Amino acid sequence: MSSCFTENISDANIKGPPNHLFADWSSANLTCEAAGNITTIQWTKEGQPLSAGGNILFSEENRKVSISPVKRHDSGEYVCKLTNPASSATASYRMIVNYGPESMTILGRHIAEVESFTLIYCSVQSVPPATFTWLFNGQQTGVHEAGYIIRSVSYNNSGDYRCDARNDLTGNVISVDHSLSVKDKTPPPLSPEGAAGIAVAVMLVVVAVALGLYFGLTHQRNNSTNTTETGSSHAPDTNHGPGTSLAPDTSHGPGAKGQRDC
After folding, report:
1. Among 136, 37, 15, which Cα is nearest to 83's?
2. Which UniProt keywords apply (predicted)?
């Protein structure tokens, strides 16, 4: 009867690699261990069945999983499930694959207005997270965050920025440049009330100019008329001019007087 006894599985655990893992460089061995009689062992990664192929190899009746070389996507939680007719047990292990920094970009405007708020953000993929250093026109800025913040832009902020990203574990460093130009503030758009006020002012100016031209032309026409009338009233009468009034009257000359005397 004792020969039919099956010992329960206990003390399940996964023994993983002792050192840091680096993408495309390191190899990893995961070994599922437990006490008791073990009939089957199944592996999952992030809740999905894990199968052999590519850089993954099973050995020792599925007790051991070898991954060589490790890739970025090999990071995650691995679980082994051990079973026998009487019991089952599980163990988990979280594997971290270090890589980067890589796929680096800078997000932000290239043109900013004076006194505006501006953020230049350095985006990079890295495990563990990268540390950052910002330079402006080749000089250290003292900023060591992913985001470079300018709360109120001035003309002095125009220039070339560089973000250096470093992975302290892999030792890799990459950089990306970004240029920023500063321009004058754009006048705010007119409100409907403001636009209406400007339209009214323009109309008043047009009316004033038209009235000025009208009265100016009228005054000029009146002056021309008065000048013409004045010139006509003072012009000499050529029919009664000096030559006519001083001409001798031959009808009353000495001869005619003599005739009357006779």
Report:
1. 37
2. Disulfide bond, Glycoprotein, Immunoglobulin domain, Membrane, Signal, Transmembrane, Transmembrane helix
Query: Tell me, what's the pLDDT at 247?
Result: 42
- Rounded Cα–Cα distance for residues 233 and 251 (Å): 33
Using CA atoms, how far apart are residues 176 and 171, in angstroms rounded to an integer? 17
- Average pLDDT score, the chain: 83
Which of 151-160, 195-204, 213-222 reaches the highest mean pLDDT?
151-160
How many residues are present in the chain?
262
**How does pLDDT run across 60-73, given as a tens digit for each residue?**
899 999 999 999 99
* 180, 162 contact by CB (below 8 A): no
Distances (CA, A) of 109 to 30, 121, 158, 197: 47, 10, 12, 35
Cα–Cα distance between 44 and 77 in angstroms, integer?
Answer: 8
Which sign does the torsion angle of CA 14, 20, 24, 25 carry? negative
Question: CB pairs under 8 A, 24+ apart, for 54-63?
Answer: 60/31, 62/32, 63/31, 63/32, 63/33
Residues 6+ apart with CB under 8 A from 3: none
C-alpha to C-alpha distance for 83 and 90, rounded to whole angstroms = 9
Cβ(134)–Cβ(143) under 8 Å? yes
First to last CA, the chain: 205
118: CB partners within 8 A, 6+ apart? 108, 109, 112, 149, 150, 153, 157, 180
What type of residue is 129? P
Residue with tokens 């900013």: 112
